[in-house]
Specification:
Elements (H helix, E strand, L loop, with lengths): L3 E3 L4 H7 L3 E2 L8 E2 L4 E8 L2 E8 L2 E2 L11 E2 L1 E3 L17 E7 L1 E6 L6 E7 L5 E7 L7 E7 L10 E3 L1 E2 L4 H5 L17 E9 L6 H15 L16
Parallel strand pairs: 2-5, 8-13
Antiparallel strand pairs: 1-3, 1-10, 4-5, 4-9, 6-7, 9-12, 10-11, 11-16, 12-13, 12-15, 13-14
Length: 233
Amino acid sequence: MTKLIRCRGGLAEIASAFDAQPASALHWHGDIWPGERALVVTSCDGGRRLDMLEWGLPSSCFVTGDRHEHRETVFARDLAPRSGSLVAPDLLTRCLIVVEAVAYPVGDAGGRTRAWAGLWDEPLAAWAGVCAADVSSGCAGILIPANSLIAQVSGHMPMLLQRHDWQDWLEGRSPAWDLGPAYPLSAWYLEQWGESWSTGILMDDAEEDRFSARFKRSRGKVDPNIELGYDSG
């Protein structure tokens, strides 16, 4: 599942890329976790609005037995009529979640790192999403089966839309359950830089920091038998 997204850039740059009017002076983190606020584009008064929404649909959007406090992703099939997962999929508002890349955890517990997936030629991509009927309540991104590259780290991947599909999606003319991958396999990259999953610190840097702390505690007397480990990620 997609549990971490990255979105970096200036507000004017992003607003221009999506031809959207910012709701106000917006501020966001470069790395965004579920429950945090993400940049989201919606259709508004014949144009597009750029705003900050919590990444996660509230439990009221889901049927009994499938309730979560918030859920940051849904499957494309969940939007089909009578899917049985969402209370009223036809009442959800379409949106585009602005992403630079998405991350997946790789490795064993205690040493997991981030594998970043994105598009080579799209520094800012549009992740098809949905918002609660009360838009301010949150949003979720739509997942589709992973292509062969992303399948190395996850069984599903975000449904990223090409520019010519944005308006059809926002206005509800594109049924999510009929859409497949919008970009060919060659358009995607998958990279690992050794960042800790939980902190984003490069593992080599984390090891150096750990060594420095132990060196200070021992007042410069380093025990050569000390095994340096990674921070849990």
